[in-house]
Each structure stands twice: as structure tokens, then as C-alpha cells.
Amino acid sequence: MAAIFAATLLIVYLFVCYFIMPELWIFRDRNLVPDLSKMVMTTEQDIPGDPINVGLVGSKQQVIRAFTAAGWDPADKITLRSSVEIGLSVVLDRPDLDAPVSALLFEGRKQNLAFEKPVGESADERHHVRFWMVETPGADGVPLWLGSASFDRGVGLSHDTGQITHHIGPDLDADRGLVIGDLQKAGQISSTYERGGIGATKVGRNGGGDPYFTDGKVLVGVLKSDAAQ
């Protein structure tokens, strides 16, 4: 009897938090979210997530090689196995160097690449970044990647939907600087430049209900070519 009750409770939780609450958020709160242009990733329910704040110019191979040299790990895709592994990592306080990140959308597409840098002994806290290769290549036909970097400060429930999620730290500019800084220290970047993002905000709020602040700029690193390394 207890097992049946627990299973029923789990089904109700999943239905409410993963189907009802996202639709309720859209109906109730969509008009309260400011227009941040298109420089914000979204959930599959079109709920705004974190802003785009970092970019790279280089091939896919260059991007992967650069993060490997900087000591960042590629993040797994979310599967049943990877979800169990990250859960055990948090509960047992043990490392999960390639813990998964959720699939988010930018320009209607899921991220092409994602990397993370663990903090401490588990996947509870980590720096992570997602990247999308934009439709228009950068200078000289080299791909331009736009991404979103943030710090996962702990696992919990979304303030808006009740879904299980990582909560982010509020200072997005700090993690943007960490990504580019680590790549520079590893000798992977030849130059940097800034481009416009969402614009400065002190009262941002992502799809999990987490507050953030940022100067709203996108810091772009130009990766060194193979010949320059």
C-alpha cells in the first residue's frame, strides 16, 4: 500500500510540475517578463532562461580542444543513466565530472556544445556554459558560437514550476569572465571583443525563478588557429 501511495504521489508531482505549472507560468507571468530582445535562451516551454553572455570564434574542434586545455569537461546529454549519476553525485557528495546539463533553446535550437568545471566534490556546485553555433559565421567564414555561462550553486526545486533544477548564482558577469579567463590562461585565445547582449539589468530572473544581474554584454574570445598554437 505504501509503495502504491508513493508511486501515485510521484506521478502527481511529475504531472503538476512538468505539465501544469509551465503552462500556468505562461498564462500568468509571460507579460510580466521584460522584452530582452532575442539574446536569452529559453526552455522548451518558451520560458526565458539565462542571457547570452559569452562567445567564441573558431571551429568545433578548436572549441573542444580549447576547453580541454583549460581543464573544463564536456557535459553529458540528459539520459536516465546520466540523471541517476548526477543524483548520486549530489546525494553521496562524490565527483561527476561530465554531469549533464538540461537542454535549452536559443534561436529555436538546443545547444550544440556544453562544458562544465566542478566545484568541490560533487555535481551540486559547478561552473557551466552552453554554446550554440549561430547561423551566420564570423569573420573569414569561421563559425561564431554564442553561449551562456553561469554558476550552479546547488540543486533544488524551481521557484516557478517546482521542477528539479540547478539554481544559479546571481553574478553572471563573473562566470563569463571565468570562461574567457581560463581559456586565456591555457593559451587558447588570441584576442577578445565585446558585442551587445540583453543590456544591463539588476533584476533579471531566469526560468527557474533565480535572480541575476549583469552588464548585459557578450564577451567574445577569438580562438587561436591551429598554426598559431
Keywords:
229 residues; alpha+beta; two-stranded antiparallel sheet; 32% strand
Quick recap of the structure?
With 229 residues, the protein is α+β, with helices and mostly antiparallel strands. It has helices at residues 2-29, 60-69, 80-92, 172-185, and strands at 40-42, 48-51, 54-57, 73-74, 105-106, 109-110, 113-118, 126-133, 144-157, 164-168, 189-196, 201-205, 211-214, 217-223. The radius of gyration is 18 Å and the shape is globular.
Account of the protein in words:
This protein is an alpha+beta fold and about 230 residues long. It has one domain (about 1-229). It contains 4 helices and 14 strands. The chain has helices at about 1-30, 60-70, 80-90, 170-185, and strands spanning about 40, 50, 55, 75, 105, 110, 115-120, 125-135, 145-155, 165-170, 190-195, 200-205, 210-215, 215-225. Strands 3, 4, 7, 8, 9, 10, 11 and 14 form an 8-stranded mixed β-sheet that branches. Strands 1-2 form a two-stranded antiparallel sheet. Strands 5-6 form a two-stranded antiparallel ribbon. A hairpin with a 6-residue loop joins strand 9 and strand 10. Residues about 15-20, about 25-35 and about 80-100 have low confidence and may be disordered.
Percentage beta strand: 25-35%
| Total of DSSP H or I helical runs spanning 4+ residues | 4
Number of strands: 14
Characterize the main sheet.
8 strands, mixed
**What kind of oligomer do you see?**
single chain
Gross morphology: globular
Distance between the termini: 64 Å
- Domains, number: 1
Give the class from helix and strand content and strand pairing. alpha+beta
